[in-house]
Amino acid sequence: MKLKKVLSVALSAIMLGNMACVFASAEESTPDKTYNYVALGDSIAAGFGLSSDGSLQSFATDPALVLTEDLIANPVQNAYAQVFGSYLAELGAERGYTTTATNLSSTAYRAQDVEQTILNDGYKGDIATWILEYFVGTGASAPLSNYHTIYNKYLSKADLVSVQLGGNDIVMEILVPMGSSENPVLQAVSTSMMLTLFGCDMQTSIGGGIMVLEGQKDNLTYQTFTEAAAYLSNVSQNAETYVEHSAGHVHDVVKAVKTVNSDTDIAVIGMFNPYGNSLVYEGTIYDMSTVMQTIFKRAAEEICGKKLDVEEVELVTDDEAEEKTEECSRHVAELKKRIAKLRQQKKEKLEQLLSIISEEIAYPMQYTIAGKNVEPQMKSLNEKLQAIAEEENAVYVDVYNISNELNLDPHPKAKGHREIAEIMEETLEDTIIAKMPAPEAESVELNKTAVNIGIGQSYELKSTVAPSDAVKTVKWSSSDRKIATVDKHGVVTGKKRGTVTITATTPNGLTATCKVNVKHAPESIALDKETLTLNVNSNYTFKKTLSANSASSFKWTSSDPEVVRVYSTGKIVAQKSGTAVITVTTYNGKTASCEVTVA
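Given the sequence above, the corresponding structure tokens read:
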């Protein structure tokens, strides 16, 4: 089977991991007031690569290879489902609920695989099956047949299901036929693009394609490249068709979830541009697969030891770029100039050839064009996903503009996962609260009714809501943010001299206030004693003096707590004979000390 042969070259240095990432924040036997969240997705949602240090070895030993009960107990850290689950736990605690979060996202699974897994007992994703059987060993894919049971176990209890799928459906509809073709150039392009999608560095990705060409160098002809050019042109022209198919499969997943649990809320999470939304590039937009073909044509000349007398492959551009023929010519001329270095290295090792290709041609060209090249397809898919959400009475979550990672790995790192979770939190808050009903507050109090702080000092106010099972969430506000600000946790920070009122408001409108007087930061602090002698077991409380019109919090320390213990009030207790220095420090670093001798 040619696909197996091509993929074996492509993946010989890497084993695709993270078939699923699952975590739970509660025991399986849940109390009455519970809220259960389940995530469905592919490698992105699964957190693929989060445990990787970028080396091939770390990919091959990824901890979440197959979904098991052990994985439920020891989830992959920092995937957005887990981060979002932490938010749910906090919200649940405020409203008297225990929450669970389970990530069923499966690497190498398309939306159509997820749908079939939900509906059909024993179903196994064919791409994931092949990877496990080929690289782990015969029978290694057997656990996949349990996915139907696992999926349905958690989906049936879910109050919220997030679905982030579609990318793999587009990619695999393009790459699998290319990898299965008789054309070695298409096989090489498919190999390199697949390795790029798996998170390999550019040298490894291009190297996989070059290995394909080297293995079939006797079959590289003019016809080989012209056929590949025609095929790739057709792929580009049919991009919207692939997007339509992908959206249809995602829609099928949403419907399948409803067959298992008609009462659950569903969040359709959009796709993001994994290659850099912030990229600025005003030149011609070249199709990535066509760029790779151009690279492999040059590489093939070196491998074969002869020039392939073919015309330049026509590069795919957008409407504006098609008119920029002069710029296109400059691009090709620059490419030829760089290729001249390859010819100079003709007698040297393939590794040197690969290094020049990857470092001087492939990486800068692909990184420059990738963001713009993917953008139209991702935006088109997101429009269709939003329409699906509206039709199915689901919530659409727009994560398109999360931070790019400045590389060609399509999987976000921890920062990107945190941003997705934060957007989910903001978008889904009302939907979640609707399923976490709790009694309204009857009263609210603060731990302080008045407090003095210095400029730049922070002080945390704490609220107490009654009755105990009422919603504990309060919204904090400042009467003058120029004098003092307050964050969502009740932490007040002084900005300039003056007095403000900090207010805590419950969801049903009850309020409690604290008067905050902001003074100068202290310029000095003094204690009433510079030296002191105590007997064992005796005590003393220091008096402190700040510079005029200032305020501060205080930190007390003892140089030897076994001799003299000091408390936060400034009280000291003599423990045993000896000497210790007691120091008080203001929030802005001013200090005063007293030497205490215990007789």
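The first strand starts at residue 34 and ends at 41. Try to locate this feature in the token string yourself.
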